Amino acid sequence: MANGGRDSCLLADISGVSCAQGEVSAAVFEKYRIATYREASFKPFVIAAMIFLARVKSPLAVLGKRIK
Fold first, then answer.
1. DSSP states of 1-64 as a string?
2. What SS3 class is residue 19?
3. Does 44 fall in a domain?
4. How many independent structural domains does the chain possess?
5. Which of 4, 5, 30, 68 has the most CB atoms at less than 10 Å from its CB?
């Protein structure tokens, strides 16, 4: 993992970019920017799948209808 094996989340405030004094400096954010974006890339799909599974009584039936 790019973060040394620790759980992480996306950075919110970047000093000098999104606010005057943030949680991380612009240089540190830039250093880990690509790894952070790659780590986060799959999360919207996981969230969408969780919402779908929670709202639909028969997910296989719904997906089967969509495929045909």
1. -TTTT--------EETTTBSS-SEEHHHHHHHHHHHHHHHTTHHHHHHHHHHHHH-S-HHHHHH
2. strand
3. yes
4. 1
5. 30
